[in-house]
Amino acid sequence: MRAKILGVLAVSLLDHGTIDDFATIIAPRAINRPGRYAPAACRATGPDAVYATSMWLRRTFSDLTWTIRALSADESRVVVRADMTGRHTGDLVLHRDDGLPYRTLRASHLRFTVSRTYRFRIADARIIERSVDFGELGPEK
């Protein structure tokens, strides 16, 4: 049950959580795998990396919400399928594998909904690894 709560919190905090919020559920050395287009700060470890991912999303998209569609967990793993909904109001800066910017998608101001699968590993009642699956389409498609 605790693992499911951690998974839902980790997704839900992306639109409004503070660094302190993330520090309560993310282990100090947790691995963050935010996707290949994320800035270097998002590819670091611990709550700071997850918070950086959250802020990258918030700079690009407004009115962000996540709707949990499916949830599965055991003692050490959680999978959350969620729809992310918002409006593309800021430029989306895409980054190369080395974390440096290489392309900017200008704000379209359009509303969107995309499905994402989040995977978490849990140990000692905290998240020790976070990854997200963007599915078939990434931001360049």
Automatic annotation (TrEMBL):
<dbReference type="Pfam" id="PF07366">
    <property type="entry name" value="SnoaL"/>
</dbReference>
<dbReference type="InterPro" id="IPR009959">
    <property type="entry name" value="Cyclase_SnoaL-like"/>
</dbReference>
<dbReference type="InterPro" id="IPR032710">
    <property type="entry name" value="NTF2-like_dom_sf"/>
</dbReference>
<protein>
    <submittedName>
        <fullName>Ester cyclase</fullName>
    </submittedName>
</protein>
